[in-house]
Amino acid sequence: FPSHEQLIIQSALQIQSLEITDLSGKMIYRSSKLSQANVTLNLNGITAGTYLLKITDTNNRTLIRKFIKD
Fold this sequence. Notes:
By secondary structure, the chain is an all-beta fold. Helices cover 0% and strands 74% of the residues.
């Protein structure tokens, strides 16, 4: 999904951690111990490209989604 300046993440469960990596696996962003159901990430410091967002909830379930930073 395309994104410009912000990435808004909403979950039915509490989000424990977030990671953004580029397609080569380089870590771009990491945040842990969030314990929030809604998180807004500022993407202004990230260059345009395709990234992977890894979301881990408080039940240790992981979801990975691809997004495009315009």
